């Protein structure tokens, strides 16, 4: 019984000594690396006190934990951004002095920290006392100065941490160890350079696709993939540990990281839809607007926890829509396109990696032995898949170019010879056509009156065809009852067809004037004759008849209104009747009407084609009927020829250098 009691007291004393003693991690020699993942080596406490930094502080009552933190350790942490925690580790160093500088790596321990070795501050990241200061993504590597080391004795590492309770940024990622500082930094830079390889590749693709777009701007998928590549290059660079070696602004890096992803996702969807020529709906455009709003909100928010929470708890879940659209598009084109099959396989890997990383950011591992982000590798595979597609396309293009180069010289010679022959034929044909046009113009001119008739009225005409042949015409005739006819016509269209139609119209007018006496009846007979022609042309016409007894009879067939200048009344009157164009309606006879008006000595009637009022100047303003009347008022008392010539001078001065696009004809009659 006595022996049993002694044994119990011995084990109880040993247990109490172990429970209330401070465990010590041992670095056996200066070349070793001491890992800090021993649960019996790290003491932990919440709260804050300057005493916690002192090497002699008694931390035996602090609970033990391991670094990185386990899921059970995370439950001890207060969910408050301003909470402060301390970690203390006792480390026994070997005798003598280190041959190389010692350093400590603390991984991504939390938000901001102050790290001390034997009470000496060896490094900080951010400022614990400044709530706006953050550094949660930064990997800590601090050099331990030689004067702070105590070889052969117990050394104390004390780390003061401000917690942000973010599952992916708490002391739960990275390797925690003490070792050769130079080797530690060398390994850091080697790893950083490897991590930058992905952003560099994405940037190369950005430049490559942008170059392709500059060559073929109609292929918008090149522009979209170029923009996606630069956005993802920026995102990938912001996910590396080495970024703090170039930029130390935590807020800027966080906003660049989130913002580049907000831009990359919709750009990726837009690229795939454009690549496979899928129609974009209002839902797609709505998501583009939503992404732009998210970018604006990110730029406006100042509290990094707000934009972090917005991303983790809301925006990430909206990515379901673009990824679903990508999946749907690739499945739709899977069988008919090898490109779709390549994209689908790599896209499936991307989706799995993103799901893995979202869960990992919340402390959940899909695969136990994978504790790192998979998205960078998945996206690299996706980019490589697109590169494969582009390489195949490029190889095909190069084969085609080689084939073209092999036969290009021969084809150029053949094509040059064919072009020379064609040019010769065209030149001969143009000469023939020009001769025919000149001949046709001569025929047309011969059908128009060669001289003004010797009537008891004065006649003046100005005829300015646009080309050798014209669709305008004018004529004079006497009726059976002794009246004096003057009429003007304008055929629709230009060139030879219009000129031939005008020749037929002049012949029809001449025949009608020998049997009819009123303008409306003559126009009706002309309409009957022209309607028999199988053509799409038609004409407008205005006809006046002076009966020799002081009355002017007139009829309008869809032509610009005539202008009567009454010398005695000093008045200008616009003449018009109901009617329609000639040559397309059999019932035009029922629509054409006659009208009459007094026509006294000194009065003048002016007929003209539509070019006179419809021609525009360089600013697009037409000469117009109002400006024509104002011009006639200005030269009202000039003789008939001077009146017409000065009116035309005003007209051409108004038009300036504007191109004339129609024939121009003016015919006037005055009672002497």
UniProtKB/TrEMBL annotation:
GO MF terms, alphabetically ordered: phosphatase activity
Residue spans crossing the bilayer: 196-213, 222-238, 258-276, 283-301, 313-330, 342-360, 366-390
Coiled-coil regions listed in the entry: 394-425
Signal peptide stretch: 1-19
Stored InterPro entries: 7TMR_DISM_rcpt_extracell_dom1, Bact_Sigma-Reg, Galactose-bd-like_sf, PPM-type-like_dom_sf, PPM-type_phosphatase-like_dom
Keywords for this protein: Coiled coil, Hydrolase, Membrane, Signal, Transmembrane, Transmembrane helix
Span of domain PPM-type phosphatase: 454-671
Full protein name: SpoIIE family protein phosphatase
């Amino acid at each position: 019984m006595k022996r049993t009691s002694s044994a119990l007291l011995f084990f109880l004393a040993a247990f109490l000594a172990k429970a209330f003693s401070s465990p010590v991690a041992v670095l056996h020699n200066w070349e070793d690396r001491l890992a800090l993942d021993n649960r019996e080596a790290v003491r932990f406490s919440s709260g804050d006190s300057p005493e916690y930094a002192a090497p002699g502080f008694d931390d035996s009552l602090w609970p033990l934990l391991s670094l990185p933190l386990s899921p059970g350790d995370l439950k001890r942490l207060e969910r408050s951004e301003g909470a402060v925690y301390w970690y203390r580790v006792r480390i026994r160093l070997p005798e003598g002095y280190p041959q190389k500088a010692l350093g400590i790596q603390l991984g991504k321990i939390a938000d901001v920290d102050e790290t001390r070795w034997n009470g000496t501050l060896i490094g900080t990241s951010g400022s614990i006392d400044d709530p706006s200061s953050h550094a949660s993504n930064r990997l800590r590597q601090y050099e331990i100065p030689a004067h702070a080391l105590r070889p052969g004795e117990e050394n104390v590492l004390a780390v003061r941490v401000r917690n942000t309770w973010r599952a992916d940024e708490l002391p739960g990622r990275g390797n925690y160890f003490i070792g050769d500082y130079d080797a530690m930094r060398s390994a850091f830079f080697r790893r950083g350079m490897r991590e930058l390889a992905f952003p560099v590749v994405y940037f190369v693709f950005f430049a490559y696709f942008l170059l392709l777009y500059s060559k073929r701007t109609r292929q918008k998928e090149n522009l979209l993939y170029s923009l996606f590549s630069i956005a993802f290059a920026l995102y990938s660079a912001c996910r590396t540990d080495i970024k703090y070696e170039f930029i130390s602004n935590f807020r800027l890096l966080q906003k660049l990281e989130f913002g580049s992803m907000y831009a990359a996702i919709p750009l990726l969807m837009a690229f795939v839809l454009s690549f496979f020529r899928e129609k974009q709906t209002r839902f797609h455009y709505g998501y583009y607007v939503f992404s732009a709003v998210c970018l604006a909100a990110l730029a406006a928010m100042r509290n990094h926890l707000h934009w972090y929470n917005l991303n983790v708890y809301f925006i990430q879940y909206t990515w379901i829509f673009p990824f679903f659209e990508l999946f749907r598009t690739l499945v739709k084109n899977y069988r008919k396109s090898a490109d779709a099959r390549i994209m689908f396989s790599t896209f499936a890997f991307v989706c799995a990696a993103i799901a893995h990383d979202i869960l990992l950011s919340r402390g959940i591992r899909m695969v136990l032995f994978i504790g790192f982000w998979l998205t960078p590798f998945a996206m690299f595979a996706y980019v490589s898949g697109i590169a494969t597609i582009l390489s195949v396309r490029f190889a095909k293009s190069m084969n085609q170019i080689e084939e073209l180069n092999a036969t290009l010289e021969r084809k150029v010679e053949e094509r040059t010879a064919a072009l020379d022959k064609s040019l010769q034929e065209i030149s001969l044909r143009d000469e023939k056509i020009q001769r025919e046009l000149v001949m046709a113009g001569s025929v047309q001119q011969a059908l128009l009156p060669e001289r003004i008739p010797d009537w008891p009225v004065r006649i003046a005409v100005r005829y300015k065809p646009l080309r050798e042949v014209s669709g305008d015409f004018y004529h004079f005739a006497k009726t059976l009852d002794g009246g004096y006819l003057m009429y003007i016509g304008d055929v629709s269209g230009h060139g030879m067809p219009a000129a031939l139609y005008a020749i037929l119209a002049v012949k029809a007018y001449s025949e009608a004037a020998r049997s009819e006496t009123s303008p409306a009846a003559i126009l009706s007979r002309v309409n009957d004759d022209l309607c028999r022609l199988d053509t799409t042309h038609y004409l407008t016409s205005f006809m006046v008849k002076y009966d020799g007894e002081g009355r002017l009879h007139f009829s309008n067939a869809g032509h610009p209104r005539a202008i009567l200048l009454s010398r005695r009344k000093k008045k200008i009157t616009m003449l018009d009747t109901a009617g329609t164009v000639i040559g397309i309606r059999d019932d035009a006879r029922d629509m054409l009407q006659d009208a009459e008006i007094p026509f006294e000595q000194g009065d003048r009637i002016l007929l003209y084609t539509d070019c006179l009022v419809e021609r525009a100047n360089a600013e697009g303003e037409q000469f117009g009927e109002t400006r024509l009347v104002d011009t006639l008022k200005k030269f009202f008392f000039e003789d008939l020829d001077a009146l017409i010539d000065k009116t035309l001078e005003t007209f051409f001065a108004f038009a300036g250098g504007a191109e004339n696009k129609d024939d121009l004809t003016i015919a006037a009659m005055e009672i002497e």
